[in-house]
Design a protein that fits this description.
3 domains, Rossmann fold, six-stranded parallel β-sheet, DNA-binding, homodimer, elongated, alpha/beta
DNA sequence: ATGAAAGCGCTAACAG
DNA sequence: CTGTTAGCGCTTTCAT
């Protein structure tokens, strides 16, 4: 007799086996396309499984040592600001990584990590939900990221290449970018260039370095007040521009650490009747889609996201394959548009 | 003697148990904060696990019936076009969902589904990698989506509310949006309004319906040639505008099914010396960030993404909790800017 | 070419 | 309060 009707749980291999009149092992082999198995049986079982929408349980497979086809994409998340998911550059970067992961046959597990709980970035790997992690942004966690590397967590980082790093980073050549932007401004008459961005972040620090180096190469030593540390929040940039206009040093150009900041700065300047580029030239960083359509179109330093995504994925997979992976520095390109003097590379003619 | 040095596999509960001088079950209970367990033991074991970076194996937990804290976000993916990850509206929608998922304590598993292999959307659920799925866009799969519902896959869809749907959809009130856009144009003198978008997609069909209804309410019956089916690709919009300009019907306004298309149309018009809005008024749909900064700023129908993300997540969780969930229609708002006549709601003053 | 059987790492009865 | 024990659904020897 039947002791008790077992709960109608989900279909499992045993069910398929019974229906196919074979053993469980045969089903397992059929579904994993084991070589020595009659083609006929294999097909029959595949068919059956498909028609019943049977899929092998991921948990059970993992217990048997199988790796999930999943890569985690993690980023430090600030619950109060919540900027990340609103930031066009960040979203585009995620998109680029997503594209690359699709091509390599992986799923993407998005993971927001609270700043005060940074160690969590390793969780998906430690619990074996993913095979490795792509970390977006170093922020202030250089040491803790190094610690992850020491522990053998497989990951790569989108960010700056730093001196004593024990991990593989992929990122734009920020110093170069800073230099390109600044040299362009200098070449077109700027002499007092405001720097807008938070140099306590490594990538920004490097852009700032480029800014400084380019000026020194021209015999200019910018006064301290021209460096304006602001977080990646548009309002902060607006406020800072107001402040400088009110009682800061005079300036004839702005180099902002991101397009979003540059756009905000431009708006703040225009609201105060400063013409861009006639009174103040503005250069951004990133080249987000919005920038080409701004008014005036924004001159900026482009980061090549498609390459970034591909490279991040490729490095992570290389590392997983046991290779030693070196940091990568991606070249940046200056895109000249209407917010500075000089010849725009293309685009619609200026309004009559 | 030791038969063979077992491979230095990852740490597991037994190791912690041994080090803590307790049984495995005690460790298990400690880590899952089981109530009846001495506080001291609990803490000691937690400490130990933390210091050794031990995490419970997800696969083993799943085998014991635990659900992963993961929601899949799936979308139909066209390998040739690869538009999705470049589309600002789509990325912003993913961002909004990501935000909502964070708030509910879930991870987000991004899954691109090849059109010809649509059944795969259910895979992460069938393999128990996720507890449910948010499907972005119905496209032409209405019947297959209904089939998923019949099979009991837990999911919600971002898209149109359709007549015979067996699933919960969340989406903007596209018909309303279409009407708002069209009425605005009619109120400001437009009489021959081009519709740009592919009405074979359900959402677009509804926007088209609104477009039609508003005109009929004014006693206008638009001729067939004014409906221009184009896919969601900027170049297609440009080309279509060229075509209509060359030998299509005359028109004094454009209602595009997305901002991206509208922006492309605007550029095409301007390239042909048509002034916006003086010669041709243009209205878009979505209100992506770019639109406010376009030249002229784009009048558009806003979709409320934050609410969209929250609602999608909330409905999915409700459905998982066993509730019957009704489709949701989110109101759209017309945002009047410079690409049409009428008073802009705000923004910088028009150029002198 | 197929089946039987032994676990994978953990949780949850069921004992004490 | 803690330990013992029996599986969860599958893969993989080892037999046949």
């Amino acid at each position: 007799m039947d002791p008790k009707p077992p709960k109608p749980s989900r279909l499992q291999m045993a069910d398929i086996a019974r229906l196919a009149n074979v053993s469980i092992s045969t089903v397992s082999r059929a579904l994993s396309n084991h070589p020595r198995l009659s083609e006929e049986t294999r097909q029959r079982i595949h068919e059956l499984a498909r028609s019943l929408h049977y899929s092998v349980d991921a948990g059970a497979q993992m217990m048997r040592g199988k790796q999930p086809p999943t890569v985690a994409v993690a980023f430090p998340y600030h619950p109060t600001e919540r900027q990340h998911f609103k930031d066009p550059f960040f979203l585009a970067l995620i998109g680029a990584i997503g594209d690359a992961l699709i091509d390599s046959g992986h799923n993407m597990l998005i993971e927001a990590v609270q700043a005060d709980d940074f160690e969590r970035v390793a969780k998906p790997y430690e619990t074996r939900q993913c095979i490795g992690t792509i970390l977006l942004g170093q922020e202030h966690y250089h040491d803790r990221i190094n610690a992850l590397a020491v522990r053998g967590i497989p990951f790569v980082v989108w960010g700056a290449r730093l001196k004593d790093q024990l991990y593989c980073s992929v990122g734009s050549d920020n110093t170069l970018g800073g230099r390109q932007a600044t040299e362009h401004l200098l070449a077109h008459g700027a002499r007092r260039i405001l720097f807008l961005g938070d140099p306590s972040l490594p990538e920004i620090a490097q852009r700032h370095e480029g800014w400084l180096a380019a000026q020194r190469a021209h015999g200019i030593e910018p006064e301290a007040g021209l460096t304006r540390p602001v977080p990646f929040v548009p309002q902060a940039a607006r406020a800072e521009i107001e402040r400088v206009l009110a009682d800061g040093p005079a300036f004839d150009a702005v180099f902002a650490a991101s397009d979003r900041l540059a756009l905000a700065a431009m708006a703040a300047l225009q609201a105060r009747q400063r013409r861009v580029p006639q009174d103040v030239q503005v250069v951004g960083f990133d080249d987000i889609a919005l920038s080409a359509e701004a008014n005036p179109p924004l001159t900026t330093v482009r980061q090549d996201l498609e390459t970034a995504g591909k490279t991040l994925v490729e490095r992570l997979l290389a590392k997983l394959a046991g290779q030693a992976v070196e940091p990568v520095l991606l070249p940046t390109t200056l895109v000249v548009r209407g917010s500075t003097h000089g010849e725009p590379e293309s685009g619609r003619p200026p309004p009559a």
